[in-house]
Automatic annotation (TrEMBL):
It comes from the Bacteria. Pfam families: HDOD (PF08668). Residues 376-390 have a biased composition (Low complexity). It comes from Thalassolituus maritimus. Residues 347-356 have a biased composition (Polar residues). Residues 23-213 form the HDOD domain. InterPro entries: HDOD (IPR013976). This is HDOD domain-containing protein. Signal peptide: none annotated. Residues 330-398 are annotated as: Disordered. Coiled coil: none annotated.
Length: 584
């Protein structure tokens, strides 16, 4: 299971990242280069546009060129310079031997790494567009902005904890704040990575405080164009540097991908417009154009964030938090996650209705539970809970004692879990050890209740993309229907087409073809959805589905009981703290 023990990287981890060089390139880049190299009329002019679409290949070309020609780093401003120094045969050897990342990687680290490459390319395109409008060299701007965050790439591949950088961005943090939360305040280590990667001087200057505006100047850039200030000459000078262009383009690209209409995106676009002395609407139009082109290139509207603009209400991607795994079910030893479920009733008035032939989940009759008032459950200290016994026996009977013990604890003494968080973690462990299902997650609604995201997970890699991104209810009729009533669904390869009806093809094709879903409640309307599946879409027997439904029903009882206890505790606390008037 997971706990919230996030730790700053150790010196050994930094050294491993410093030494790592085997960053994969995109598989479609290798395929495109192979096809072009078979052309009798092949030339650098035809190869450069293909290579520039892959930031990882650009990074490798830079490293190879500098290693062969140590004194040429300052003269390299693009792929063409690298190929001129290396030759075509060196490119063929490099592409042939480098590892690759497919279009739809299964490994979470490769997924994060792939998205980092897409965002780096979008940052380079933004910088080139902005440089072109100012009459500056576009190749240099593209090269610097694309490589600005390349020091993050090895972290995403080597350390799963670095994925939290994207999680904190999706939670509203800025680039620097997210970096300090995940990596600590370590400017010297970042500078070592920049030097080790032979990055351009404009990228190195991003990590030099004296090369960028100070905190006061950043605040001024957020408010107004420095050309309108009498004392803005120095700020204008610093805002026009190559490092500033690379930094603003890279920062804007990340936030456009996360939430193109969010406050962070608007802030970075405002800063960029003031730094360049250009009108804000012009930069917004240019950024949208770049997002559309990136989506077409990657064949994914979410790769650039442009797909988030097509929803009825503004949406943002939500990257799940990665937490270290635990081996045993010990609720008292765990620390609750930062995500707190919301117990209020979902806003079903804004949810669209779905026709029965589109989604028809099997209705479930909930167990009788006392009505609970609308009160939010808060974590509190807990006593040692009763722990279900872990049983290892024959496959048919595997986990039956464990599941019986867990369900008894949920039904009879849910308070022994302490709070909502430990209870949900115990349920997911019960799905794995008690029922024998490999992967399970719990999806809860976000702040605006128009999308679901994974908050609790047990081996979530088999349930992508549910476990890796926020799913708007507008594009997922099945989830939308489950959030309206307590219901259960067992999807099989024969019925998946019916249940996935109405979903985007990209989402439907990526989901497991056999899985179980059931909504859970806390005495009222559903508050979330439990999803489970086996590895490689292995069949789920009817007995496992029945146990899954029983466990989810009992979970709803436990949540309702905890909700009642929380309401009573709050009422008791309020009455005891009320002033008492003595009689005269």
């Amino acid at each position: 299971m997971q706990n919230a023990a996030l730790q700053i990287p150790t010196a050994a981890q930094w050294e491993a990242v410093l030494a790592f060089r085997a960053m994969p390139i995109l598989q479609n880049t290798r395929d495109a280069l192979r096809r072009e190299l078979q052309n009798p009329q092949v030339s650098f002019d035809s190869l450069v546009p293909i290579a520039e679409r892959d930031p990882a290949l650009c990074w490798h070309l830079l490293q190879r060129a500098v290693s062969h020609n140590p004194g040429c780093r300052e003269q390299i401003h693009g792929v063409y310079n690298c190929l001129s120094l290396l030759g075509m045969q060196e490119l063929v050897t490099l592409v042939k031997n480098l590892p690759t990342v497919g279009d739809q990687p299964e490994d979470p680290s490769e997924k994060m790494y792939q998205q980092a490459l897409y965002t780096a390319h979008m940052a380079g395109c933004l910088a080139a567009q902005w440089a072109s409008a100012k009459g500056a060299p576009t190749n240099t701007a593209y090269w610097s902005a694309m490589l600005a965050h390349s020091i993050l790439w090895p972290w995403l591949l080597l350390e799963r904890s670095s994925h939290n950088w994207l999680h904190f961005l999706s939670e509203g943090d800025d680039l620097v704040t997210a970096s300090r939360k995940v990596f600590g305040h370590s400017p010297d280590n970042w500078k070592r990575l920049v030097r080790r990667h032979n990055l351009p001087d404009s990228v190195a200057d991003i990590f030099q405080r004296d090369k960028l505006p100070d905190a006061r100047d950043w605040r001024r850039l957020r408010r107004q164009d420095p050309r309108d200030l009498d004392s803005g000459r120095q700020l204008i000078h610093r805002s026009q540097t190559e490092s500033m262009l690379a930094l603003t383009a890279a920062g804007t690209a990340w936030h456009l991908h996360i939430n193109p209409e969010g406050d962070r995106s608007q802030r970075w676009l405002t800063i960029s417009s003031h730094a360049q002395g250009r009108r804000f609407p012009a930069l917004v139009l240019e950024s949208r154009d770049v997002q559309i082109k990136e989506a077409r290139l990657r064949k994914s509207s979410f790769a650039s964030g442009i797909g988030l603009l097509a929803t009825p209400q503004p949406e943002g991607l939500s990257y799940p938090m990665w937490l270290p795994e635990r081996e045993t079910f010990t609720p008292t030893a765990a620390t609750p996650t930062n995500e707190k479920p919301v117990a209020e009733t979902p806003d079903t008035a804004t949810a669209d209705t779905v026709s029965p032939d589109s989604v028809a989940p099997e209705a479930v009759t909930p167990e009788k539970a006392a009505p609970a008032k609308n009160a939010q459950i808060e974590p509190r200290p807990t006593t040692q809970p009763e722990q279900p016994q872990r049983v290892t026996s024959e496959p048919v009977q595997h986990g039956s004692a464990y599941l019986k013990k867990l369900m008894g604890q949920l039904a009879e003494s849910p308070a022994s879990f302490g709070d909502w968080h430990y209870l949900m973690q115990g349920v997911l462990k019960g799905i794995q050890l008690g029922i024998g299902i490999d992967h399970s997650i719990v999806m809860l609604p976000g702040k605006n209740r128009s999308a679901l995201r994974t908050v609790y997970a047990e081996n979530p890699e088999g349930l992508a993309p549910f476990s890796t991104t926020s799913i708007p209810l507008q594009v997922a009729p099945l989830l939308r229907q489950l959030m309206k009533q307590q219901a259960a669904v067992h999807i099989t390869p024969e019925t998946c087409e019916r249940y996935f009806k109405g979903m985007p093809a990209e989402l439907a094709n990526a989901l497991p073809k056999e899985m179980m879903l059931m909504s859970v409640h806390a005495g009222r309307d559903p508050i979330g959805i439990v999803i489970a599946a086996n590895s490689e879409a292995a069949p789920i027997p009817k007995e496992q589905y029945q146990r899954f439904r029983q466990l989810c029903n009992t979970t709803s009882q436990g949540l309702a009981s905890l909700r009642q206890l929380s309401a009573k505790a709050k009422a008791s606390s309020a009455s005891s703290s009320a002033p008492v008037r003595s009689s005269q």
